[in-house]
Specification:
Layout: E1 2-3, H1 5-19, E2 33-34, E3 38-39, H2 47-54, E4 62-63, H3 69-76
Length: 88
């Protein structure tokens, strides 16, 4: 499962717009600034909004790759996929 680029871009744009003008971006330096000077750490909204965001899932924001048949069989049998092919 991978995030679609357009979903990631939309999230990043909203995030950086919300961070603009906050104390988190004042000065442009700090441990939370990655390269190239982008705030990669701070959440500019409320904790309640974070909980709401983490409690929802939009499957359309992702591309899906179906598991290999052996992986699907292992999951159905509660056997970790990394143990496939090992004698029991």
């Amino acid at each position: 499962m991978d995030v679609k680029p357009e979903a990631e871009t939309a999230h990043q744009q909203a995030l950086h717009e919300a961070l603009r003008g906050t104390v988190y971006n004042a000065g442009g330096t700090g441990y939370y600034f990655g390269l190239p000077g982008i705030n990669t750490f701070c959440w500019p909204w409320s904790t309640a909004r974070l909980v709401q965001r983490l409690d929802s899932f939009d499957p359309d924001a992702y591309t899906w790759t179906l598991p290999l048949p052996a992986q699907a069989d292992a999951e159905r049998n509660d056997q970790p996929a990394h143990q496939l092919g090992r004698p029991q």
